[in-house]
DNA sequence: AAGTCCCTCAACCGCCCAAGG
DNA sequence: GCCTTGGGCGGTTGAGGGACT
């Protein structure tokens, strides 16, 4: 039998999103909130798979996203969390507000992995490569989930031998202090690693579908954005702020947004 | 200047899980 | 308990652009 495809493959557009499509998706979610991704393309007038819409939204259009490269401290935190959690990118991303699992995964594969290898550290086990070679010589099993946990325990049990301390010298003193406070406080880290509600969604959960069964509207969510963080608007890349009907936002925000759009235009 | 190689990252794919009927 | 469905996750791909020859 097999499961029904998440969308009708016929007539579904694939590939890069256009500014027009982004606009439609944003407009729809601003108006209706996030609900039933399968229905989103139809209701928003998009020839896209619902899954594709969700991905586009969560990885690129979501208002609470940070853009740009990971900072040293973020990178260090990723390394430390990876040593403990393995390739559970969503869990790692949940501890880095404004970052997506996809972004972290990409950054890991393209930057951090190489960095660790260059430093002689196995990016899988987070142990020195020569140590790893000795292990494989003595016919150790392939890395598994359990082995990752073993590495986790190893890392936390032997703070002098873990990747964090090896890499700490690469961080600025500020970064190190941040990491010291986050990574080496076992109690705090245990709390952070618990399956609590993801930090990244805390401010955004407000537009989840409301109890009344209707899709939530952005009307209730917008005030908190105005107060807290409208930086996401600055990151709208291919379209103007006015396209979303945000003219009523204050002048500074709009000015900043337009400045950023100028930068974006250069790309 | 042109061609090729390499790197980055947005997007897709397939699988898994939880919730609801 | 089984089936269906929606959503989420991790792995992989491929287009685009910069670096190199």
From TrEMBL:
It is found in: Nucleus. Pfam families: Myb_DNA-binding. Residues 9-61, 62-112 form the Myb-like domain. The keyword Transmembrane helix does not apply. Its main location: nucleus. This is Uncharacterized protein. Residues 145-165 have a biased composition (Low complexity). Residues 124-137 have a biased composition (Basic and acidic residues). Residues 9-61, 62-116 form the HTH myb-type domain. GO terms for cellular component: nucleus. One of its GO terms (molecular function) is transcription cis-regulatory region binding. Residues 123-170 are annotated as: Disordered. InterPro entries: Homeodomain-like_sf, Myb_dom, Myb_TF_plants, SANT/Myb. Keywords: DNA-binding, Nucleus, Repeat, Transcription, Transcription regulation. It comes from Rubroshorea leprosula.
């Amino acid at each position: 039998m097999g499961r029904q495809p998440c969308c009708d493959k016929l007539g579904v557009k694939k590939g890069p999103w256009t500014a027009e499509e982004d606009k439609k998706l944003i407009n729809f979610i601003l108006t209706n909130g996030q609900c039933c991704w399968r229905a989103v393309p139809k209701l928003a007038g998009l020839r896209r798979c619902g899954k594709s819409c969700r991905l586009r939204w969560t990885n690129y259009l979501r208002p609470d996203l940070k853009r740009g490269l990971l900072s040293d401290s973020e990178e260090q935190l990723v390394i430390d969390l990876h040593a403990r959690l393995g390739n559970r990118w969503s869990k790692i991303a949940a501890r880095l507000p404004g970052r997506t699992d996809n972004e972290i995964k990409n950054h890991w594969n393209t930057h951090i992995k190489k960095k660790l290898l260059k430093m002689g550290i196995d990016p899988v086990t987070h142990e020195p490569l020569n140590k790893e070679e000795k292990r494989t010589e003595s016919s150790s099993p392939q890395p598994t989930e359990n082995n990752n946990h073993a590495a986790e325990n190893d890392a936390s049990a032997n703070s002098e031998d873990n990747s964090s301390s090896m890499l700490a010298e690469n961080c600025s003193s500020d970064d190190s202090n941040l990491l010291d406070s986050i990574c080496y406080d076992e109690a705090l880290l245990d709390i952070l690693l618990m399956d609590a509600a993801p930090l990244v969604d805390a401010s955004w959960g407000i537009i989840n579908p409301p109890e009344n069964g209707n899709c939530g509207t952005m009307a209730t969510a917008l005030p908190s954005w105005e107060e807290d963080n409208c930086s996401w608007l600055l990151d709208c890349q291919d379209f103007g702020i006015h396209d979303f009907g945000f003219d009523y936002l204050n002048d500074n925000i709009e000015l900043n947004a337009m400045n950023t759009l100028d930068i974006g235009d250069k790309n």
